Amino acid sequence: MDKHNKPRVVGYCRTDDGDEGIAEQRTAIKAYAKKHGYDLVNIFDDVAVRGTTATGERPGFQQVAEVAERGKIDAVIVQRLDRIGRDLARVLPAVEWLRDQGVEVRSATERIDTSVPAGAAVFAVLGTLGVEPPEDAALLRRIYGLRRQGRSVREIGVALDTLDTPKQR
Questions:
Q1: Residue 11: φ, ψ to 5°
Q2: Which three-class secondary structure state does DSSP give residue 8?
Q3: Which residues pair with 104 in a beta bridge?
Q4: Among 19, 50, 58, 117, which residue carries the largest CB count within 10 Å?
């Protein structure tokens, strides 16, 4: 954080085709940063890059990685988590790597924030399930719905075990 204790953040945007959608993502990131009082230092883009492309092969994400490694930021804001990767098999390693650098991930539209216990717990649950699309989105909605109901992480685990959820691989 800077001298004013204002978290320093960067935004990350990705589109599959051309720059359509970049402006919308940037708007969501800027609004989220402003609403939460963050110091938005930059927004990095990967234009016309598929979500299945490794983060190490994306110029924009590599810029995020560079500032994260240097300790220059506290968090990365994305419009939606699927901007990092197409599925959890791609998203989870990237998020864990960022967290290892001391950088949290926040979604401007999905109520995902790895800096709070509930957000970190959701990632832990998802990591053990090893689910893939299209199950990812439905499972995330279910987990966050249970969390909004005030369920504990243990209760969420029990509830998911009673559903027809994928088993650990």
A1: -105, 155
A2: strand
A3: 75
A4: 58
